[in-house]
Amino acid sequence: MAGVTRTPTGLTQGSTAPAGIGTSTLRPDGTLKVTGEFAYASDMWHEDMLWGHTLRSTVAHAEIVSLDTSEALATPGVYAVLTYDDLPTEVKHYGLEVQDTPVLADGKVRHHGEPVALIAADHPETARRAAAKIKVAYAELPVLTDEASATAEDAPLVHEHRTDHHAAHVPHPNIVHRQPIVRGDASSAAGRADVVITGEYVFGMQDQAFLGPESGLAVPAEDGGVDLYVATQWLHADLRQIAPVLGLPEEKVRLTLSGVGGAFGGREDLSMQIHGCLLALRTGKPVKIVYNRFESFFGHVHRHPARLRYEHGATKDGKLTHIRCRIVLDGGAYASSSPAVVGNAASLAVGPYAVDDVEIEALALYSNNPPCGAMRGFGAVQACFAYEAQMDKVARALGMDPVEFRRINAMEQGTLMPTGQPVDSPAPVAELLRRVKAMPLPPEQQWETTEGADIRALPGGLSNTTHGEDVVRGVGYAVGIKNVGFSEGFDDYSTARVRLEAVAGEPVVTVHTAMAEVGQGGVTVHAQIARTELGVQQVTIHPADTQVGSAGSTSASRQTYMTGGAVKHTCEAVREKVLRLGRERFGTYHPAWATAELLLEGGKVVTDGGEALADLVDVLGEEAIDLELEFRHRPTEPFDLRTGQGNGHVQYSFAAHRAVVEVDTALGLVKVVELACAQDVGKALNPLSVVGQIQGGTTQGLGVAVMEEILVDPVTAKVRNPSFTDYLIPTILDTPTLPVDVLELADEAAPYGLRGIGEASTLSSTPAVLAAIRDATGLELNKTPVRPEHLTGT
């Protein structure tokens, strides 16, 4: 009975809980996913539900002259057709930072594929046919597709009446945000250089290419609100943007995470969330929206394409004297997270090197190209591609080994960033380079067998285009630096609710957060943390929803640090309450309750010497300990708008790659034979998941190096290749051997000393592959992705 104190019985020696941190615990969703049994958002179903569909613009920049929905409304099976004029409140725009994106086109379309109207019908095909009956007349306007057209003196403004806080600090209204960084005197330092190398680089627009398309189910509720089940990266940011448009208080808009089939930044912005809720509230019925692959290319932001110009100077003994660079990112029609991407690109623009004298300018444009925002690496990817190409060129001009040149200039703990911020945790750049170079190289000409050439191991693979006669091997290296967590003064926090109780004679923990599990394995790690901190084997992970405080976004390599930190912090508080309860109930039975360091292990309260004092179930009785707490990392600050100085980041992560490629120089075909990585992870909470994350990021970097690019017509700003037929991503046949060397140097300021690891491997894999192709061919290759015509000159 409640309140009854029992004497502890059956005590045994305490032991460390299995499946805690540091072990490669299997993912609870792993088997379901590989067997096809996992329920993704697109699998959701509700009785009597309708299907939503979005009509999108067929042009990139135009005034909407007329919009006739009468035929669509008259279609049997159609329940609703909504346009901008049907929106229920005065709040008709949304955005992560800048609320410049219309829910539906506001009399003008600013990019190809912009949502114009919504349809709800009893069958998805009925909805699509009804959409085709909507008559839209456009008066096309000039399109802005590059910096020259966007910043011309007479350029039309993508957004005529800007009121965001960046508007007063940019040199042209079609610039979303600009961040200069100046430290030292680059002009004076250039005079000390024995070698000065300049280069111009172009980075293509990459798609996140997640396999699960945008999808969700909106269900109207009896209280006049709505329940939304959705695949997203940030439940509370969605809520903050959805509720004002619906005219509802946040407590009446309830979000629950559904199965997510990948994200990589592409689900940080809204897609179908508001649209589904609007249709559900208008019709009074559940509404499901699932994008097909074509629509998915228009339904989310992409990685910013970039043009980058760099100047590196060095002395003849290999020391960098200065770096100047200018980075122009194309943000497309709406701001999304472009301001933060600019901050990252600028602050990380020189790479993981110690350089005292720098001049950096980074900016993002408004244009009529597709909107761009968050993608794995977030501004640091584009910069790494360029600065690592520069490091190879400078090393070549000096006659130095490229790895040795990098080692000479490698930053270390205590180095000042270009922003003036000291790197106050391990920065093992030189060691990572040493490790990745020391890995054994794969054998030469692996395609040769006793039965002839194995075409699968040759450039071109099963297309049987070459038998090795013009194949040349190349080896390339690269290293990168990425920040972890939200930066520039953002109040970055996460919340965790932890409940400990006795159920059927066993201690059980329930962990409840709003963290979006998008495939990164956070649900596994949260259970490991709870087992470690509370010594309990049975851990249940509550579905993520907005009934608990925000966990922030599953992005910026932050979730294990932040929400993992919140789970750890809350478990520690629960543990203290357990021990306090134990002292109250059993303190008179053993002096150790008052004098020893007490732990929870193996479902018991034990001393640090391993002596068990009580079973947890006896301590708890019928009482449950239930706490919800927030966790914050140390504060950061905005970068100065003139000098870029400031402690803008909380942590940095580092990875180095060595790429081995074989190139058919006659046909322009590339086979990446191996892509080895060494990365510092601080502490591997789940070693198997860590390796998987590093290999996944490496593969995305490989994709943008040799095949991935969204092609946008430079005249019409229309997307040319919105399909996986024409937008290529690496398959198992394209993916090479991916050896990983994990280094664990703890960051004392982070939970368990961990370092966010999800993005760093995406940075350096791309320039390593490009460096290897340059090594094989002798070509300059300043653009991603490398295509056959770039290698053959045809």
UniProtKB/TrEMBL annotation:
SUPFAM superfamilies reported in the protein's UniProt record: CO dehydrogenase molybdoprotein N-domain-like (SSF54665), Molybdenum cofactor-binding domain (SSF56003)
A GO MF term: oxidoreductase activity
Region (Disordered): 1-26
InterPro entries linked to this entry: Ald_Oxase/Xan_DH_a/b, Ald_Oxase/Xan_DH_a/b_sf, Ald_Oxase/xanthine_DH-like, AldOxase/xan_DH_MoCoBD1, AldOxase/xan_DH_MoCoBD2, AldOxase/xan_DH_Mopterin-bd_sf
Residues annotated as domain Aldehyde oxidase/xanthine dehydrogenase a/b hammerhead: 35-142
Pfam families given in the database record: Ald_Xan_dh_C, MoCoBD_1, MoCoBD_2
Stated name of the protein: Molybdopterin-dependent oxidoreductase
Higher taxonomy: Bacteria, Bacillati, Actinomycetota, Actinomycetes, Kitasatosporales
